[in-house]
Amino acid sequence: MTRSTMSSYMHPVILTVIMILLLGCSGGSPEEKLSQHFQNGEQLLKSDKYREAIIEFKNVIQLDPEHVEGHYNLALAYIGAGKLPDIRTAFQELQKVISLKPYHLEAQYKLGEFYIQSRNLDKAQKTAEFILEKYPDDLTAKILLATAYAGKEELSKAQEIMEPAVKDNPDSVKAHLLLGNIYSLQEDAVSAEKAYNEAIATNKNEELNPRLALAKFYIRQEQFDEAEKTLKEALEASPDDKQILIALADFYLSANRQEEAEKTYESIVSAEPDNERGYLMLARFYVRKDEKQKAEEVYKRGIEKATKPIGLKKMMAELLLDTQKDDEAAGYINEILQEEKQDADGLYLRGRLHLAKKDVSEAINDLKESVKLADKNHNAHYYLGLAYQSNGELKAATEEMRAALYLSPNMDDRAGLALAALLLQSRDYVPAEVEVEKVLARYPEYPGANLLAANIYFEQENVEQANAYFKKFTKLSPEDSRGWIGWGELQSQRKNFMKPL
């Protein structure tokens, strides 16, 4: 047999073998492949491998678009993945589940939780009522309904649901806790304390929540000794529970017991050195004390030791930007975005970095994308406003400052002043006056707010008010020449050069 004859003979044989191998590797029938993908997804979900689980459950849905449990488990995987776009997709998947099977209770419960967390209380109420129409004794639905009523401050309705629910379900820790919270909101301290203690007695596994709830109740009642005692009892009962240590550290911080708070935060770090959580809390403790160098050292320690230090890298980068260490920040920002190109926090940080380096167009691009991915980040709106202002886009800058203030009213010392300055720049004097006076109502001794107010009134030719604010600014910041120059211009306008402050 010649080489050419042999070649022509072997070619179809080889093809047949390859096809058999490929078919053999394809996993059999569609039903078998679907079952295998679903089982793989379940195992990955149990192992907290959420991204891999998402792929498997997507394969399930591709094979059967109406596979109810495929959609439900895909939602769970997205919830586990935890980023904002993931949560949105999880919500959509849960809606798909109940469109296919309206009384899929676990999906309805999850949707109810989403509605509570997003303060969409009417939808939470409707979800609970829908379940209770068919299952009038469903405790989880009753808890959801009572929580919705409590959120709407309809406390008597919440109480009417939970009191019989507790009697019918005396072993439910959640029911006792919610009833305790309702009594606490009604300022019925005796009933609240009793309900929390019943939750603790019911909780045979010595879980944290009942004792934590009781401790928080004591703090609200200003019974600080009882609160500390309760937290220490919880720690003694569950010494390995890090949540108790966190609550105890936060208690010491709120009581201004700084040394004990610091030691307890260090205990959290020591108890779980491979978890970034403790490092984040300890570093934030130092930031609150304005000990930024110590915070930086803690972030570095955590980045070296934590298994997943992405949160630490983000906080470290922000701290470095805040302290004008831009080149150091750049390294961490690059690492964040190498891990995920569309990380909203990473884009926000890179936008800040571009802004610090006067690369305004790139700053705007990154900050716009960050806001698109995570529109609740008030800092991203604030810095996007600054970038627009630097680019001369005053209207867009004003909109971003308003968005920042809407999301975080307490940042009025930055965004509020920036908004007032933008309005002044746009010659919208009356709105500028309103905004700066809001800031001054909270921070009457803030030099920058007094100087800005002086300039706003100066531009409106309100000499008396302008004079008062220039006068106050020069007292607060006598070394700052801007106050004296402004006052001088004002006196020149009044033709009264010699009038003393």
From TrEMBL:
Is Repeat given among the entry's keywords?
yes
Keyword annotations from UniProtKB, A to Z: Repeat, TPR repeat
- The record's TPR repeats, renumbered to this chain, cover 34-67, 105-138, 208-241, 242-275, 344-377, 378-411, 447-480
| Aminoacyl-tRNA synthetase is among the record's keywords | no
Pfam families xrefs: TPR_11, TPR_16, TPR_19
> What is the name listed in the Swiss-Prot or TrEMBL entry for this protein?
Lipopolysaccharide biosynthesis regulator YciM
Instruction: Give the species this sequence originates from.
Output: Candidatus Electrothrix aarhusensis
The opening ranks of the lineage are:
Bacteria, Pseudomonadati, Thermodesulfobacteriota, Desulfobulbia, Desulfobulbales
